[in-house]
Write a structure and sequence with these properties.
The chain is built from 26 helices and 2 strands. It is an all-alpha fold. It is globular, with a radius of gyration of 23 Å.
Amino acid sequence: METIQSQFDDTEPEQTINNDDLKPTTTDKRTFSWLEMASLWVGLVVGVSGYYVAGSLVDLGMAWWQGIATVVLANMILLVPLILTGYAGTRYGISFPVLVRASFGIHGAHVPALLRSLIACGWYGIETWIGGQAIFLLFPQTVKESALSQTLPWLGTSVLEFCCFIVFWIAQLAIFWNGIDGIRKLEKFSAPILIILTSCLLIWSYIEAGGFGRMLSLSSRLSSSEFWSLFFPSLTANISSWATLSLNIPDFTRYCKSQTDQMIGQAGLPIFRGAFSFVGLAVTSSTEVIFGRVISNPITLLGEIGGGFLTKIVVVFGLTLATIATNIAANVVAPANALVNLSPSTFTIRRGALLTAVVGIVFQPWRIFGSSESFVYTWLVGSSALVGPIGGIVLADFYLIKKRNLSIKQLYSLSPNGEYYYSGGYNLAAMAALVLGILPVIPGFLHKVGLLSSVPYSLVLIYDNSWFFGFFSAGIIYCIFSLFKRKLHKDGIEPLIYPDT
C-alpha cells in the first residue's frame, strides 16, 4: 500500500481528472475488516427488492426449492467477478471509475461508469419507492381509501403515495452526507437488527401456516419445458440484481485492510442470499395457505398482516432500515463516484448523490415495481445487458491483458503519450467490444417491452441470458482486438484500432 501511495505522491495528477475522492486510499482509511464487508452484504441482501426477486419466482410458478437453487447458483456465479474485481480495488486503493481508465481509456472510462450509474439511479428510485410504501403503511385505512390515495393516470400513482416517496427520498440523503464512514457504521448497525426482524417474519409465517410442511406445500406449476424457459431468465435476473455492484465493488474494497478481508467478507454472499431467499420464498409460499392467494410483494403482505399501531411502527422501522441499508451502499456510491470522475472540479460525492436521487425520480419506479413480470423480465434482465459486457471487458483487461499490473501514475495522467490515453483518451477496442456485446440483446428487449411483435428465437434466447452473453462475448472480443493490435505493433505495422502508446 505504501508503494502505491508513493507512486501517486510522486506524480502531479491532472486536476481535471482527480480530486480527494478519486485518490488512492491511504493506510489510515483502510478500516474495513472482513466482518464489516460481511455486514455490508447482509445489509445489502436483506431488503425488500431481494425478497421480491425471490418471491417473484414462486409467483411465476416455481416451487420453493427450485427458487432457492436458482438464487444460490446465481450468487455463486456472481461471487467470482465480485472477488476478482474487488481484488483490484484493494490492491491499488482505487475506485471503479479510476479502474476502468485502464481498459476504456482516461476519457473513455466515463462511458461504462455512467452506464453503470444510470442503472444505479433506476435502482435508487425503486428502493426509495419501497421506503415510501413503508411510510404509506402507517396511514389509517380511511386515508388509504380517500381521494388522495386514488391513482392518477398521468402520474401512474396516487398523490399520497408520491408524497411518501418524496419524504423518504429526502430522508436518505441526510444519511449519505456522512460519506463512506457513515455507510460503514450504518451497515454494521443494521445487520443484526435486520437478521432479527427477518427471523420474526419467518416465525410468524411458520405459526400462521401451521408449520413448515404446510408452508412449503406449494408445488411447481410448471412443466419441464416451462421450468427451463423460466429458469435461465430468472438466473440472469438474480445475477443482475447484484451484477451492478460487481462492477463498482472496488468503491468498497479499496477501504479493506487486506485481500483476505475483502475475499472472506464477500464469500458469505451466496449463504446470506440463500438464507434470505429461503425466507422470501417460504413466506411467499405460506401466503397461499394463510390468505388463499400468493403475495410476492412484501409491502402488500405486511399491509395484510395487520396488527396494532406498535406493530406497524416495528414493521415500518424494519422496512426503512432494510431499504436505506441497501439503497445507499448499492445505488448511491457508484453514480456519485462516476460523476466525480466525470468532472472533479464540479462534483463532490455529496453533489453526485443529490443528482443520483433526482434522476431516480425520473425513472418512475412505481411503474417498474408494478408486477413480478415487469420487475424480473424487463428491469432485471434488461439492465444486465449493459452490466455484463462492461464486467467482461474490465476483467479481461486487468487479468489477461495487463496481468494485474497497473501504473498508478498513468491512471492520473492526461499525457497523449500516457499508457492509458490510447486514441484521444479512448480505447477503441473496448468501445467496440462494448457495443458488440450489447447490440445482439436489443431486439429481445424491444420484443419484451412490446415494441417488436416477433423476433427469432435465437435473439430471445440471447436476451434471456443477456448477462452471460454480454460478459463472455465482450470479454472475448476485447481480447481478440487487443492481441491483434499487439501483433500489428510487434510486426511494425501501424495499428488500425488505435495508435500505440
